[in-house]
């Protein structure tokens, strides 16, 4: 484990990413303490530039505190990223594992099913799903999970295909272990590294997707999110740039941090690939 | 004058390695028209020596001291550009893996032509002449082929043709036959010998196989831990080895059976395989596809307590046949009777009770253990799956480690902390944990160094005696088969062409293919001297 951290820390960008991520998470956790009032409440006069009336990042067209919106929005954005990633990992890993382990027509059927999802532009599908099921936090998380599992299934299937033929898996077959025990106990632990790396990148794209949905007005109407902040500031961007820019910076930093961490994880988990990069 | 003189060559290893120098104070000479074999186990520094001469050492292995003189030219004093000119024109190298050494997108003839052109001697006719010189049939069509159309042996010939293109004075061959089948190996060895005699080239031949040494060497240098421990003519070193390490290595070389082979207790049949067929189909929905009959006409039976050797070259179907018996591969036809019950039609669940009784040892000790599990769990896993309480299974795993002569402390360590030989012992312990009646060993020692190989074979023999095991032993190495097995079945292209007691098959092979295999054993004329038991 310590060796893992040493390898992870060798990638400077990954450490920076981790620090940013911890700060964003801390901001999300501490939001009720830092900004005890609801982010929907009026805190001062509208269109106040940053620093005026005790509002660090200014106020929006209804006089709401932008900083409070960003802090509270971090909770939703991170939560949506995490939950939808866990859900799509659940779908992707199970289907990929079954396809890769079983092979044959099962593999063919599952992969055609996966391709069906891959051929539809994922954002359009997400918009469609949210529009059908009416915007709510559950439907948004569900829609993001449904559009982002195919790459997981592909990666897991490829790993399983190559690991299935390895001698230690054949040895497990010879010992008479059940299929499930072999999939979970022998193959999956050895396929974990690419899944972990992929997951960190998926959290980033889920946050982007959620922001994009909110920007289009398909966010949960009761929850403050970064995408909503940008969306609501869009029409007055020439009058009050801070309303769109600061939430945008928050998204940018979080997604960048997740990508950096993902790369660091990939270096730390696959030391052989990382060596050439130095 | 010698073609190559190496004096006091020392190459450092990066800090943190198990020893400070990869090779230390190595001195060798190669004379014109002679083959010098450098023998050693993996990690002995023999390839490093060759790469140092070619100037191909990676930056992490700096040359610390010594002189390298090729035909009067001091190689260490040459700038990189001059070294590049020397490589290919004055000295050339053949590598171990012919499958990956050729550019897959370039026609064979063009690749050889390129070697000529780089050194300023482009000549189309010469390419075909070279291909003919390495005994390739139909040089014209071979020159037009892409590498994927050629077999391993043909590719290695192309590599040799390329190496010889500019008539170098020195040819370095780094395990050139290790990846090849035994019959192909013999052809390549004869080819190298013939070319070397015809052209008077000096050859530095690196190998781990004493059979190959006996076949080809004029002089021998034995390396251990980066040093040359013994050096002399082939006859001296092979028949009267002096250094304890050389003696240990030669003692580890399996000899041939002397008598007619002892028939073991004639008991019941444990395993009887009849009419088994396995065919692989390749090709998509719209193309006709190819058919490969991996196993057919391969009937055999195993009596209790007996060891049957399944011998053949790669692709002969011996591993497929063994995998059919443990149902890793599902055959289309035939019967596999184990103790009276046909295993072939059994479902996964119905097969489970038989899993206890038939166990397998795998070839590659680096791939056959789950890297994410502790050794203790790996061994105990089988019995736990079959209902043994966890504590009891782990207790037994501890005993098994002692039986395969590993420290009980190994229980809580991961496989990557062990050497190849140790891992193979763990694999054996895993199979034994199930208390099997039939043990299938699929090339269990072919990935191991010769001295480790001897230890593992001795361990297997001991366990077989004690546990009264019946064994199906798959190998491509006839020396190993002769040492381990009671009976031998020879496979060729999916069929068993001959079977019988070891002594009989070796003394009077009935099938021409068996004859050919036996003739191809390198160093067949050399019988390892009787050096007694290890002191």
UniProtKB/TrEMBL annotation, chain A:
InterPro entries the record matches: BP-dependent_transpt_permease, MetI-like, MetI-like_sf, OppC_N
Recorded family membership:
Belongs to the binding-protein-dependent transport system permease family.
Could you state one GO cellular component term attached to this entry? plasma membrane
Show the stretches that span the lipid bilayer: 12-35, 76-102, 123-147, 195-218, 239-261
Localization (cell): Cell membrane
Annotated GO biological processes are: peptide transport; protein transport; transmembrane transport
Can you give the residue ranges of the ABC transmembrane type-1 domain?
74-262
Q: What is this protein called?
A: Peptide/nickel transport system permease protein
As for membrane topology, the entry says: Multi-pass membrane protein
**Main subcellular localisation:** membrane
Keywords attached to this Swiss-Prot or TrEMBL record, sorted alphabetically, are: Cell membrane, Membrane, Peptide transport, Protein transport, Transmembrane, Transmembrane helix, Transport
TrEMBL record, chain B:
Q: Which GO terms describe its molecular function?
A: ATP binding; ATP hydrolysis activity
Q: Which domain of life is it from?
A: Bacteria
Gene Ontology terms: biological process: peptide transport; transmembrane transport
NCBIfam families per record: PRK10419.1 (NF007739), PRK11308.1 (NF008453)
By what name is this protein known? Peptide/nickel transport system ATP-binding protein
Name where it mostly resides: membrane
Family named by the database record: Belongs to the ABC transporter superfamily.
Q: Which residues form the ABC transporter domain?
A: 4-250, 271-518
Pfam families linked to this entry: ABC_tran (PF00005), oligo_HPY (PF08352)
User: Where would one find coiled-coil regions in this protein?
Assistant: none
How does this protein sit in the membrane?
A: Peripheral membrane protein
Gene source species? Humitalea rosea
UniProt keywords, alphabetically: ATP-binding, Cell membrane, Membrane, Nucleotide-binding, Transport
Query: Which cell locations does it reside in?
Result: Cell inner membrane
Q: Which GO terms describe its cellular component?
A: plasma membrane
The lineage is: Bacteria, Pseudomonadati, Pseudomonadota, Alphaproteobacteria, Acetobacterales
